[in-house]
Structure formats: structure tokens, C-alpha cells
Design a protein that fits this description.
- It is a single chain.
- The protein has 221 residues and is mostly helical.
- The protein has one domain: Urease accessory protein UreF (Orthogonal Bundle), CATH 1.10.4190.10.
- Helices cover 65% and strands 0% of the residues.
- Helix 3 packs across helix 4.
- The longest helix has 23 residues.
């Protein structure tokens, strides 16, 4: 489905780093991997991000966006079941707290802009809140899934620029290189059933669980 010029501009706002949801404060396990010497350059980072886009929890969340959006439009109670199921895919308490905090922040912003979430669905974690933003801003698939994956990749690269450290030009080059994969995965996930997918991001889950044990850290997860 094509996206009109007005919706495209609203989509840009949704993935802007200025969106006040606190995404910049999370590394989602990257900090553990960098301190352990697992990610020390752009090539290992690229491989990690490609693996997560293909088989990680973020892919399952992206696959759930269309169902969440449809459920919110139809006022279906299935939204809450799917929201809880997605949270359960995140093993680390820090990641579940991140999903809840970012969801609350986005829902509060939307409410302040005149789009309060119906009380029956409050609160929702980040994927559900993102789907509600898509309802409010009239963003349809696969642009919705592309935005979700693009925003996740951008935040991970932003964290890597500070942690590895990675030069900002290298970070931007990697974002460009990942664009075809983001588009490909978004198209596939927009038509997928999230409960039929599986998460093979065991390494990511272990890294996220270990983050709370770091002696010093820059990020919240």
C-alpha cells in the first residue's frame, strides 16, 4: 500500500530521534557485548543487527503491529493478550521495563496531542503504543513495520557510536547498508502471523540479562 505525502511526514515524526520516549537511553544488551569484546567494529555490529532483524524479538514485534493496529481500531480485547505475549518474549526485566516505559511515554505524548488511548487498553507496551500511534497518524503497513524496524536499528547504531566507539560516518553508512534488509523484512513481517514466528536471539537475551550486573554502564538496558 502506498503512503500519501501527509502520512509520510507524520511517519517521519514518529521515527524522529526528537520523539520524547527515551529510546536513546537504552542499548538492549549492546553495552554488555562491547565490554565483553564481542562487538569491536562495524562488521560485527552489522552481523549482529542483521541477525536480530532476521530472527530476533524485534522481528516478532514488527510482525505483531498490523494485528495490534487492527485490534485497536476494532476495540478488540485480543490487543491486551497480544501485548502481554510480546512482553513475555523479552527475557530480561530491564527490557520489559524499557518496553513499558517507552510505551507510556508515547501514549502520554499522543494523549497530549489529542489522541488518548481508550482506557480499556491502557497501559500498552512499546509495540502496542506504536500501533496506536499508527492508528492516530493513519500509518498503514508495510510503512508501519518499516518505521518500527528503522527506528530500532537507528537506536542501536546510536548506542554503538557511543560504546564501540563507532564513527558517526560509519554509523550512517551502516544504516544505509541495512535499508534493503529493513524493507525486505518489513514486507515479509507485515504479512506474517507473529505467534507462528520464533525468536532465536539467545545471545541477545543473555546479553540483556547480564546488563544489570555490569560494574559500570552508560545505558539503562
Amino acid at each position: 500500500m502506498s503512503i500519501g505525502p501527509d502520512a509520510r511526514l507524520r511517519l517521519y515524526q514518529l521515527v524522529s530521534p526528537a520523539l520524547p520516549v527515551g529510546a536513546f537511553s537504552y542499548s538492549e544488551g549492546l553495552e554488555v557485548l562491547v565490554q565483553a569484546g564481542r562487538l569491536q567494529g562495524v562488521e560485527p555490529l552489522s552481523a549482529w543487527l542483521r541477525a536480530e532483524l532476521s530472527r530476533g524479538a524485534v522481528a516478532i514485534e514488527a510482525a505483531a503491529l498490523a494485528s495490534l493496529r487492527q485490534g485497536l481500531e476494532a476495540a478488540s480485547p485480543d490487543v491486551l493478550d497480544l501485548d502481554g505475549w510480546l512482553l513475555a518474549q523479552r527475557e530480561a526485566p530491564e527490557l520489559r521495563a524499557q518496553q513499558r516505559q517507552m510505551g507510556r511515554s508515547l501514549l502520554q505524548l499522543l494523549a497530549d496531542l489529542g489522541w488518548p488511548l481508550p482506557q480499556a487498553f491502557s497501559p500498552l507496551a512499546w509495540p502496542g503504543a506504536f500501533a496506536w500511534a499508527a492508528v492516530c497518524l493513519e500509518i498503514a503497513s508495510p510503512a508501519l513495520e518499516e518505521a518500527y524496524l528503522y527506528g530500532w536499528v537507528a537506536n542501536q547504531i546510536s548506542a554503538a557510536v557511543r560504546l564501540i566507539p563507532l564513527g558517526p560516518t560509519q554509523g550512517q553508512r551502516l544504516q544505509l547498508q541495512l535499508a534493503p534488509l529493513i524493507a525486505e523484512r518489513a514486507a515479509a513481517l507485515a504479512a506474517a502471523e507473529p505467534r507462528q514466528l520464533w525468536n532465536s536471539g539467545v545471545g541477545a537475551g543473555l546479553a540483556q540479562l547480564q546488563h544489570a550486573e555490569l560494574y559500570s554502564r552508560l545505558f539503562r538496558s
